[in-house]
Amino acid sequence: MAAIDGIAAAGHAVANQEEQGGIIMHSCARLLAVWLAGSITSPALAADLLIHGGPILTMAGERPHQVAAVVVEGGRIAFAGPLGQAQQLAGPTTPRLDLKGRTLIPGLVDAHSHFMMAVDLARRVNVSGAPVGDVASIAGLVAKLAAAEPGLALGPGEWLVGWGYDVSLLSDQRELTRRDLDARFPDRPVLIMHVSSHGAVLNSAGLAALGITADTPAPTGGLIHREADGRTPNGQIWESALALAGPALKPPGRAERLKSLAAVQALYAKNGYTLANDGFTHIADLDLLQTAAGQGRLMLDIVALPSFVDLKRWLGNPGYAFGTWHNRLKLQGIKIAQDGSPQGRTAYLSEPFLVPGPNGEAGWRAQPIQPFPAFLATARAATSAGLQLFIHANGDAAIDDVIKAVETLGLPADHRSIIIHSQVQRPDQLPRYAALDITPSYFTNHAYFWGDVHRRQLGEARAAHISPIRSALALGLHASNHSDFIVTPLDPMFILWTSMTRTTRSGFVLGPDQRLDAWNGLKALTINPAWAYREEGRRGSIEVGKLADFTLLSANPLVTPPAQIREIKVVGTMKEGRFLWEAGR
Ligand SMILES: [Zn+2]
């Protein structure tokens, strides 16, 4: 998909602003009572909708489970079962939705993405390679920027920002540096975000505007790459050094952002998500989300994970209450990042990469964002305040830090600490997850996008064991799967396909023993992420009492050959019994 290009095609949003304090059982209980009493045809008690006419995968239980019909009342599922009973229950006047062979599944729950990053893409240039964009060389990247610049009507000195840069897709087979950008952009400051969002490339005007010179030291947990003299910045900055680029990434005004926020919600809805995640929320972003919620602008449920960078601002501040919904917005826990990305060679490993580090270092293992004592202190501050931990850890050494922290902190039962990505983990770490109740959220799209890079950089054994989702599920962990959008596209059937095939760009199957069946692949996109957000009582499966949030698919994944799963389309998205979006309407 063209990640953000379809963003303006807003669906006909339905904003049901009913307060979502807890499970609203009254309507379902009333229907059930009426049904049990046998007086089921009273028109006054008719339900809102009866859905039938296609496979309905409930995603409840360990084995594939289907029902023939669902009855909706008051935005909730009042019945899921045989058609005859549903018809009796709903009565003759209840509107019908005939699926006409389309497959109904629970509304998709976004386990991890960056909703607010998408909000700010409108004025940034897509320099991704295929399939998200079309950049295939450094010259092509510079040309793409140059072509987009006039349309952005930037003022003098205003930043030109690109996103999606991925060296592994460039025919040049080398990293972009300031010099590549300087020839075409000698005066305008330029910043190009790496596809992982963990690094960026600046031109010389950009370095100058940010005051980054040969004398600027890399901050703790950050990297400033240098030229051959070992001093002059080459333009690449990574991890915590990205904080130096704040002025370049300053968001546009509030009115413009609110407009983009509507378009981004429509994009998530078109991809079947009824709950979207903002996986690293800065304070200004949260204020915007709260404003939008307050003004009734949210049509999707949004779970935000405030960033540890602003921890002192969140803790004990009644303006930022965690764990409860307010007009479709919930702050669920604290997001801590403890390393970077494996393809960017910033995943913190216990054994070195097979290739040199970014500055030619031999035996490169990358580094943690915070040394362990500081990381532990951050986790302790959050958990002492009762907050759930969501920790970005890609490399096995960063994962060791999380395991050690959870063990040291002695967290209460059912703490549900989540490791986001959990990609380059060792086989011996999964039993520790099970013992300590740590839950992984995997990123199987990596197998396709960077699987070939991982084989080269990590070696076959580590690459094959990346995102070991089948092993995690076998241990009973509520493992979820995610897009990390804007890092890879939101398309849930693409994510399902990568979890079922683990096929790389070159067609290699990476770790065939970790491939999932469709049922478990779908659970990782529905009920398992619902559990991670403590939402399993309200969503993630089609069961009585849960929200009537549904996603319609063009075909049934349970009977589609794995190789064709990625061709299945999301053809409709319903929130609380009403269409947010439907293909062809
Ligand atoms: Zn992320």
TrEMBL record:
<dbReference type="Pfam" id="PF07969">
    <property type="entry name" value="Amidohydro_3"/>
</dbReference>
<dbReference type="InterPro" id="IPR013108">
    <property type="entry name" value="Amidohydro_3"/>
</dbReference>
<dbReference type="GO" id="GO:0016810">
    <property type="term" value="F:hydrolase activity, acting on carbon-nitrogen (but not peptide) bonds"/>
</dbReference>
<feature type="domain" description="Amidohydrolase 3">
    <location>
        <begin position="98"/>
        <end position="579"/>
    </location>
</feature>
<dbReference type="InterPro" id="IPR011059">
    <property type="entry name" value="Metal-dep_hydrolase_composite"/>
</dbReference>
<dbReference type="InterPro" id="IPR033932">
    <property type="entry name" value="YtcJ-like"/>
</dbReference>
<dbReference type="InterPro" id="IPR032466">
    <property type="entry name" value="Metal_Hydrolase"/>
</dbReference>
<protein>
    <recommendedName>
        <fullName>Amidohydrolase 3 domain-containing protein</fullName>
    </recommendedName>
</protein>
